[in-house]
Amino acid sequence: AWRPEDDETSRRGATGPVKVHVPAKINLHLGVGPLRADGYHELNTVYHAISIQDELTARRGDTLTLTMEGEGTGVLALDETNLVIRAARALAAYAGVPAHARLHLRKQIPLAGGLAGGSADAAAALVACDALWGTGLTRDELATVAAGLGSDVPFLVFGGTALGTGRGEAVSPVLVRPTTWHWTVAIADAGLATPSVYAELDRLRDAGAAPTPMGSPDRLLGALRQRDPAVLGAALGNDLEPAAVSLRPELARVLAAGRSAGALASIVSGSGPTCVFLASDAGHADRMARDLTAADVCRLVRTAHGPVAGARVG
Ligand code: ATP
Per CATH, which fold does 4-174 belong to? Predict the structure, then answer.
């Protein structure tokens, strides 16, 4: 077997464990354009990284292995289909090093929740293995490898608040004075498969039963600059929401419960079924979390803030 001392690259890497934290994402604006020839929809989105996190620890090993605890344990396959393994292999191939690591995932981001948990784990694996192997890629190089793994993965390498175009993989930061936004997050019992939500939106659009696509995020970007949660709340929007609600009608009750709890805005996160509620401050987010828990409309209620950094060591 290959040993760390066998080549120069590995001697630059870490000898001890490397721990990486990675956030979940929500979309403050998710504008879904037409279906492209390659099967993806053209997106205009504003990504926002929030403080619900997964943790990935990487240690030296003779092969590539993955273990996990937390959300999805026993359900999520830990084989070559897992995005953590795919990301480690993609980085090894890009950098020309052996894909040898023992990886352990502590998962808090729910599966198929519309919070991009799988993409987050892929981003975490890139950052963790880059440090473990001493491959020393820049964030932009990591984002290039990330784009081959999934549309949301580049954003989770950067974090913060960022504009996403193309199929979401072309990311540029939104430059605004930093403001912390507070959220209450309602996590559902079971996930929704992202492709089925896009297919449902296509069906609704073909039937003339979907709202006009939102298009550009200019209004949302203007609202971010005003730093007023009520203004931001009025500008949040998600073209996928009617499709998610159509597939999962009880989401209408979750969104209504958020409004009753005093949310400045209630939206489905990405392809759902997670719903997010904008609060005016941290105390308001806590009070909404209490009310939503009492309303008993979902599996788990959490509070979060954003923006937070992308995948990072430590
Ligand atoms: P998005 O918001 O990007 O649509 P999501 O939050 O709805 O994502 P994920 O949990 O990211 O959904 O992943 C969806 C599917 O990807 C899972 O059901 C699973 O089959 C696959 N997958 C592969 N690796 C992972 C991983 N490490 N964590 C979660 N899902 C993974």
Answer: Ribosomal Protein S5; domain 2 (3.30.230)
